[in-house]
Specification:
The chain is of the alpha/beta class. 42% of the residues lie in helices and 22% in strands.
């Protein structure tokens, strides 16, 4: 499967997104946007959800590099599901835009190994 970036419609909730990801044999990684009120919290949440290895620099360049590598994860599709992205967008639109761009670029650029990345932003 090719990597991709998806903005899910408002009608798709967390449970539905996780179920759809599992149904197609992919691995869901949930990021709770309600907890992401700063860019630092967002970096930490994404790193934790995808179990980033040591050396993550907590900046957009490092985020992109890690998302286009994924060599530490099992082969197959890995789906980062970001619930409630509007929380960060309302608090810090600049950080939201930067993170959204890094996630979109990484997902559409593809990964270098056997693991692929899909990003789903839930509009809830």
């Amino acid at each position: 499967m090719l990597s991709r970036f998806v903005r899910a419609p408002r009608t798709v909730g967390v449970a539905t997104a996780i179920a759809e990801v599992k149904e197609r044999g992919a691995v869901p990684h949930l990021v709770d946007g309600a907890e992401m009120v700063t860019s630092a919290a967002a970096f930490e949440a994404i790193a934790h959800a995808l179990d980033f290895p040591e050396g993550f620099g907590h900046c957009l360049d490092s985020l992109y590099d890690h998302l286009t590598d994924l060599s530490w994860l099992s082969p197959g599709e890995h789906v980062l599901i970001w619930s409630k992205p509007s929380v960060l967008r309302k608090i810090d639109a600049t950080s939201y835009d930067g993170l959204g761009s890094a996630l979109s670029d990484a997902a559409t650029d593809g990964t270098k190994g056997d693991a692929t990345l899909t990003v789903i932003m839930l509009d809830n």
